[in-house]
């Protein structure tokens, strides 16, 4: 599929799978696809299918958030090429998913999703203005800021969190649970914890780029081993709660922002390892405020590893963005 494998560069960022697309709804489908840093509308279509497999509420509110943030960006005069590539839709998509899971499906939730997604569009512009001179991408920071603020505001107040029990040594999983975790680590990017939904998301990644799909599978395995070695709770490991940030981080560093080499593959794997304890620690902190980590571990870890790239550069190893 040469058209699908083609890469499109928008403002210095490469989006695998940005070739010929159907006209109708292409920007919205790309907006869903950009949740996992790919630009193929066919990937977005498969991701949307995975959302509806997870429940009609996820599908409807994910699409609503994507449409709302994209429309707001157009009305605010955002760069049309960026809008066409879905760069203004992915934070809205995640916002819709997070809020419907938190508040349930209702017209009030729909109104809140539209408003919050519009704010994401504003914050995306502000974040781009601040981060571009530093050579850092926006990633999911607008979504994290908006949804974290809303969930804290809508919570019933601080929650007292006791010490979380940890399994001594290595957390043992059955083969079935390990297989489920490998898939859930990918599906949880869209709040999906079933193995078959995770496989649909993986199929969407494969449509966009084999490199991206391999990065996702590899990071899922790395996160699984790391979480087990850390003695984290088996139920949370199986549900993919410690793996989705690692998958996003590996895709960003190993397939999108850094030129793919053997060194950057190892660099991305190290970043994936780092997100696991980071996510576990952030979870304890976030729970005390009635919220969750969302994709903060992915965003912050990716920023740090990208910022460290020039310092760690060495002859023959390029930390320039992929071409």
TrEMBL record:
<feature type="transmembrane region" description="Helical">
    <location>
        <begin position="241"/>
        <end position="258"/>
    </location>
</feature>
<dbReference type="InterPro" id="IPR029020">
    <property type="entry name" value="Ammonium/urea_transptr"/>
</dbReference>
<keyword id="KW-0812">Transmembrane</keyword>
<keyword id="KW-0472">Membrane</keyword>
<feature type="transmembrane region" description="Helical">
    <location>
        <begin position="111"/>
        <end position="131"/>
    </location>
</feature>
<feature type="transmembrane region" description="Helical">
    <location>
        <begin position="294"/>
        <end position="312"/>
    </location>
</feature>
<keyword id="KW-1003">Cell membrane</keyword>
<feature type="transmembrane region" description="Helical">
    <location>
        <begin position="32"/>
        <end position="53"/>
    </location>
</feature>
<feature type="transmembrane region" description="Helical">
    <location>
        <begin position="87"/>
        <end position="105"/>
    </location>
</feature>
<feature type="transmembrane region" description="Helical">
    <location>
        <begin position="265"/>
        <end position="282"/>
    </location>
</feature>
<comment type="similarity">
    <text>Belongs to the urea transporter family.</text>
</comment>
<feature type="transmembrane region" description="Helical">
    <location>
        <begin position="214"/>
        <end position="235"/>
    </location>
</feature>
<feature type="transmembrane region" description="Helical">
    <location>
        <begin position="59"/>
        <end position="78"/>
    </location>
</feature>
<feature type="transmembrane region" description="Helical">
    <location>
        <begin position="185"/>
        <end position="207"/>
    </location>
</feature>
<dbReference type="InterPro" id="IPR004937">
    <property type="entry name" value="Urea_transporter"/>
</dbReference>
<protein>
    <submittedName>
        <fullName>Urea transporter</fullName>
    </submittedName>
</protein>
<keyword id="KW-1133">Transmembrane helix</keyword>
<dbReference type="Pfam" id="PF03253">
    <property type="entry name" value="UT"/>
</dbReference>
């Amino acid at each position: 599929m040469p058209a699908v494998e083609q890469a499109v560069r928008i403002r210095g960022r490469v989006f695998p799978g940005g070739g010929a697309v159907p006209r109708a709804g292409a920007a919205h489908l790309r907006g869903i696809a950009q949740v996992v840093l790919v630009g193929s509308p066919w990937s977005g279509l498969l991701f949307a299918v995975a959302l509806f497999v997870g429940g009609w509420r996820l599908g409807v509110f994910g699409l609503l958030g994507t449409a709302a943030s994209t429309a707001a960006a157009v009305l605010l005069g955002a760069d049309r090429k960026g809008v066409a590539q879905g760069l203004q839709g992915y934070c809205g998509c995640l916002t819709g998913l997070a809020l419907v899971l938190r508040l349930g499906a209702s017209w009030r939730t729909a109104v809140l999703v539209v408003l919050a997604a519009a704010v994401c569009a504003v914050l995306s512009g502000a974040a781009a203005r601040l981060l571009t001179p530093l050579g850092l991408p926006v990633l999911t920071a607008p979504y994290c800021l908006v949804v974290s603020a809303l969930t804290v505001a809508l919570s019933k107040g601080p929650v007292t969190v006791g010490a979380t029990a940890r399994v001594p040594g290595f957390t043992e999983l059955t083969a079935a649970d390990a297989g489920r975790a490998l898939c859930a680590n990918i599906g949880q990017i869209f709040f999906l914890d079933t193995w078959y939904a995770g496989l649909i998301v993986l199929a969407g990644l494969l449509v966009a780029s084999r490199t991206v799909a391999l990065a996702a599978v590899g990071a899922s395995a790395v996160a699984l081993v790391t979480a087990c070695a850390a003695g984290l709770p088996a139920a949370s490991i199986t549900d993919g709660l410690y793996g989705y940030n690692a998958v996003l981080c590996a895709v960003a560093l190993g397939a999108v922002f850094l030129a793919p080499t053997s060194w950057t593959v190892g660099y991305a794997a190290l970043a994936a390892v780092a997100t696991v304890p980071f996510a576990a620690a952030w979870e304890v902190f976030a729970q005390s405020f009635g919220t969750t980590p969302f994709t903060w571990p992915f965003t912050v870890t990716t920023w740090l590893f990208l910022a460290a790239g020039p310092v760690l550069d060495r002859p023959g190893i390029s930390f320039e963005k992929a071409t």
